[in-house]
Amino acid sequence: MRLRRKAGWAACAGIVVVLGIGTAGGMVSDAGAAAGSSNFTKHAASSPLTTADVSFSVSVSGLAPSTVTITGNGAVDFTNDAVALTVNLPAVVAKLIPGGSASPEVVNAVFSGGTIYLEIPSLASLVGEPWISVALPTKAASAVPAGFTKVASALGDVNAIVHLAQKHHASVASLGTSIIDGVKATGTGIIAALPHKGSTETLTASVWADSSDRLVQGSVTVAGVGKKGTVGLTASVDFTNYGGPVTITAPPPSQVKVIPYSTVAPFLGKLLHHGHHGHGGHHDHGGHAG
Q1: How is 66-113 classified by DSSP, letter by letter?
Q2: What is the spatial distance between Cα 166 and Cα 159, in angstroms, rounded to a whole number?
Q3: What pLDDT, in 10s, does the model give residues 197-224?
Q4: CA–CA gap between residue 172 and residue 163 (Å, rounded)
Q5: Are strands 131-135 and 115-119 parallel, antiparallel or unpaired?
Q6: N or C end of the chain: which has fewer CB within 10 A?
Q7: CB–CB of 41/30 below 8 Å?
């Protein structure tokens, strides 16, 4: 739990890349409370975030003969608690999907109305429809709005993330200003040592904020020692087009195979247990045929 706590600010900065609402949520609250005493330059307060475009890349080395990289892009609608992503899976990952082959695969994902929709081409022939859907249990679904609010707060208050890193004894330094995704942004570098199972993992992060203190780009790199040697993870995320037009729609019921949550719950439980030890302009995401 100590490690999770220390790494929480990194989740705000970089693992927002996968919109980890549940994981980041608790630390975002701390970040908001801590914002007032940061030593770094204050930015003009921004209005509440409504929408944004997102692109991301996650690379893992040391677990396969070569580095495995997953990339994607999409959009987030914080007002309606919805996300749409297109994820590019390399062959080494795609072949692990039931029905998958050793070829890259593009997966579309939509979260809307408390339901997760996935369009996975290799699964289509097995389930009989282009999309599958899993509705969250009532308790989890009721927590979604607060989760979106907390993530939006983190994205709009980078200064708080920086201060939270300082609070957890990370080394923090200014990276000056640069043009990121066409926006003038101010950067902060963060380095921290994270104790893990008798060893120490080194975490390096950077966050770049616009003049309204909204996250433009965040990255996290973690290097540690695994069973097969050095293991590294690098994640980066870019947020653009804040407040731009976004339309996120669920696919039509005729194209969806409904999967009961009870069917996937055991798999999710194992995954979580293991873990603990779009573009510019108007978007119309989701709801298309495979």
Answers
A1: S-EEEEEEEEEETTTTEEEEEEEE-HHHHTTSTT--SS-EEEEEEEET
A2: 11
A3: 666 678 899 999 999 999 999 999 988 7
A4: 9
A5: antiparallel
A6: N
A7: no
